[in-house]
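A brief tutorial aside. Many learners find it easier to grasp structure tokens once they have seen a single protein encoded end to end. The record that follows does exactly this for Outer membrane pore protein c. Read the sequence first, then the structure, and try to relate runs of similar tokens to stretches of the chain.
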Amino acid sequence: RRSFFLHYGFNGEAQLSEGITGFGTWEQEVGLSHAESGGAKSNFTRLGFAGIKFADAGSIDYGRNYGVLYDVGAWTDMMPEFGADTTVTDNFMTGRANGVFTYRNTNFFGMVDGLNFALQYQGKNDTKEDEKGRRGLKGGRGLKGGRGLNEANGDGYGLSVTYDLGNGVSAGAAYTSSNRTLGQRMLNSARNNKDKRAEAYSLGLKYDANNLYLAALYSETRNMTPYGDFSGNKAKHGFADKAHNLELVAQYALDFGLRPSVGYLQSRIDGDYQGKSQTIKKYIEVGASYNFNKNMLAFIDYR
């Protein structure tokens, strides 16, 4: 099925006083393949946050932004089209997320070049299904027009650390821990797992020098990774007790603008609705991108 869409947005900065800078980002996606009656479903805000930077003391921002797990996940999100399947949007703090307050510090207060860290807090994002659960009704599926159970979260926090080791080599790690909502704990397919917290960690390594880009990511989640179809009243969906994710990417930038890419991604879960293990994502990617100039790029990707 063919799909056409448009991304647009802006980044802004303003000097508020000596050493203090205000900044903001807004990004929208518009689908171009729907009739007018269905257009609202394909028009949404990808990012929208504002903050203040205090020179070497770091920066704070709030809004819809990337979760800190993506600080490491971004290293393998380099395939021309595919990849980053383990970075799920609106799934706690793995990808783009609502209501996150983030503190970032680069070069460790200006004292250690290449050492960066971030601290993040995410407020609760409930669903109508959680309200049903509080009233003693069975949960299990999202309601039309609202946030689904697979997109909800309780209060949570996270942190990330990346370090430039020199010679193009960087290492990174991130961790998050969040409360699960009542509806998520009551989900029919999770009846054997009513743990109150969802946790994740990720470890990454990359090399970016001499026109060569190599990146590897390993991550694990607990009570966080969704599987199955949450859109209907079906039993075969839920949150995995544990997920093991692996992403690998290799690219080489040729002098005339061509950048071949090869990658591998696998996501395996333990503890599905039957208490078994299964692989929910696994593929090899082969593709390439071509830069015509700084404003125009073409790509092809196959998996």
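Self-check: Residues 58-302 form a domain with the Porin fold (CATH 2.40.160.10). If you spotted this yourself, you are ready for the next section.
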